[in-house]
């Protein structure tokens, strides 16, 4: 954790904090390391979502009403 340089105060519900403490103890990591890893995973997931949206930007849009009508026309509903 020596490479981390910014400090923040984060408040958790007591049960979440207890779970973090237990996970930290069982994985031999600090709570800060666990939170840092979780935030990195969340940001990576956001990046993947944004890439998917960019890949699909040229796809035609269909309204909900048109989708329902199409499903009914094809006997799906």
Description:
The chain has 77 residues and is mostly helical. 64% of the residues lie in helices and 0% in strands. The protein contains three helices and no strands. The mean pLDDT is 94. This is CopG family transcriptional regulator.
Gross morphology: elongated
Instruction: Say how many strands there are.
Output: 0
Structural class based on helices, strands and sheet pairing? mainly alpha
Mean pLDDT: 94
Percentage of β-strand residues: under 5%
Largest sheet: none
- The total domain count is 1
Number of helices: 3
- Helix residue percentage: 55-70%
Q: Whole-Å distance between the termini?
A: 55 Å
Radius of gyration: 22 Å
User: H/E series, N to C?
Assistant: HHH
Q: Uncertain segments of ≥5 residues (pLDDT<50)? A: none
Organism: Pseudidiomarina tainanensis
Protein name: CopG family transcriptional regulator
């Amino acid at each position: 954790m020596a490479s981390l340089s910014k400090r923040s105060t984060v408040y958790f519900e007591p049960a979440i904090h207890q779970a973090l403490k237990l996970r930290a103890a069982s994985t031999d990591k600090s709570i800060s390391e666990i939170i840092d890893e979780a935030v990195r995973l969340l940001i990576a997931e956001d990046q993947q979502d944004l890439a998917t949206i960019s890949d699909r930007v040229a796809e035609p849009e269909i309204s909900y009403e048109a989708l329902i009508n199409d499903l009914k026309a094809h006997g799906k509903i």
